[in-house]
């Protein structure tokens, strides 16, 4: 009901130099909500553990007090729910829902940029909660001052508490994260293989987890245990498959547009109607899956969108491929077509 991922707890969060300040602040906020850092503003690049850490605060608070009202929402969903409530005259219920919680977790707050109505609503939500000493935690890919087109009165409130960053994990932390993950998945992986993967993947934790999954899948396919040389082959195969496919983002875009009967301009544009948003998200997802382009590069090819938008789209479709038969079929058909 609080929409928390059960895996995102403090127990499963590995602490290292890159995140120890953020971790300490999160633990403190969970222990004495509303009392120490309010709001707590966690910022940093994609895939570095912001969402995980923020949700860990929610779990911890509910462990300490099962009655605690914890609400997690992405700023995009907050916006969508607000628009829906305006269209259906249910704004009162919307307000009650957000203004009567003990802990509000708002993820990826940078998406409030340019959204005046949502900023106005969030301003009042923030004030009400803060007045009542209710804990507010936000994440963002950048500092409050660097969020584009956001009201000064919000920026100043974002800085009332503590802003703390998470940076990319060092090698030792990456190894520790992999080891922990392997244990959780009951995978037997020798240390030299873990080190190898951690050395190869130095971008972010999300990519690290993805690499581990590839290695696992590769070992199943080859029906051999995981060792360093198998890990090397798996990661090489992944890189080769992507660069050799010769697929470009623009080929993927054309195919998706044809499939859904929409224009390239709409696909790259900003319209938020469902008939365009879904194809756009699928095209981003396929670009990520089938080319070796990075998130920012893909964002650029979709009319200069932020890398976090691409990431959200990928997450969304990954989810829908499992839960939505229609999306699953569309993705499969498109993949088949693109491979020929
Ligand atoms: P962000 O919100 O910063 O983009 P996430 O919180 O979604 O990143 O983290 C991406 C993935 O990496 C998640 O599966 C998360 O559990 C994992 N992760 C990130 N940091 C850590 C960490 N320090 N320890 C364990 N897992 C981590
Ligand atoms: Mg996140």
TrEMBL record:
<feature type="binding site">
    <location>
        <position position="47"/>
    </location>
    <ligand>
        <name>ATP</name>
    </ligand>
</feature>
<feature type="region of interest" description="Domain IV, binds dsDNA">
    <location>
        <begin position="220"/>
        <end position="340"/>
    </location>
</feature>
<feature type="binding site">
    <location>
        <position position="50"/>
    </location>
    <ligand>
        <name>ATP</name>
    </ligand>
</feature>
<keyword id="KW-0446">Lipid-binding</keyword>
<comment type="similarity">
    <text>Belongs to the DnaA family.</text>
</comment>
<keyword id="KW-0238">DNA-binding</keyword>
<keyword id="KW-0235">DNA replication</keyword>
<dbReference type="GO" id="GO:0005524">
    <property type="term" value="F:ATP binding"/>
</dbReference>
<comment type="function">
    <text>Plays an essential role in the initiation and regulation of chromosomal replication. ATP-DnaA binds to the origin of replication (oriC) to initiate formation of the DNA replication initiation complex once per cell cycle. Binds the DnaA box (a 9 base pair repeat at the origin) and separates the double-stranded (ds)DNA. Forms a right-handed helical filament on oriC DNA; dsDNA binds to the exterior of the filament while single-stranded (ss)DNA is stabiized in the filament's interior.</text>
</comment>
<dbReference type="GO" id="GO:0008289">
    <property type="term" value="F:lipid binding"/>
</dbReference>
<protein>
    <recommendedName>
        <fullName>Chromosomal replication initiator protein DnaA</fullName>
    </recommendedName>
</protein>
<keyword id="KW-0963">Cytoplasm</keyword>
<feature type="domain" description="AAA+ ATPase">
    <location>
        <begin position="36"/>
        <end position="167"/>
    </location>
</feature>
<feature type="binding site">
    <location>
        <position position="51"/>
    </location>
    <ligand>
        <name>ATP</name>
    </ligand>
</feature>
<comment type="subunit">
    <text>Oligomerizes as a right-handed, spiral filament on DNA at oriC.</text>
</comment>
<feature type="domain" description="Chromosomal replication initiator DnaA C-terminal">
    <location>
        <begin position="248"/>
        <end position="317"/>
    </location>
</feature>
<feature type="region of interest" description="Domain III, AAA+ region">
    <location>
        <begin position="3"/>
        <end position="219"/>
    </location>
</feature>
<dbReference type="GO" id="GO:0006275">
    <property type="term" value="P:regulation of DNA replication"/>
</dbReference>
<keyword id="KW-0067">ATP-binding</keyword>
<dbReference type="GO" id="GO:0005737">
    <property type="term" value="C:cytoplasm"/>
</dbReference>
<feature type="binding site">
    <location>
        <position position="49"/>
    </location>
    <ligand>
        <name>ATP</name>
    </ligand>
</feature>
<dbReference type="GO" id="GO:0005886">
    <property type="term" value="C:plasma membrane"/>
</dbReference>
<keyword id="KW-0547">Nucleotide-binding</keyword>
<dbReference type="GO" id="GO:0003688">
    <property type="term" value="F:DNA replication origin binding"/>
</dbReference>
<dbReference type="GO" id="GO:0006270">
    <property type="term" value="P:DNA replication initiation"/>
</dbReference>
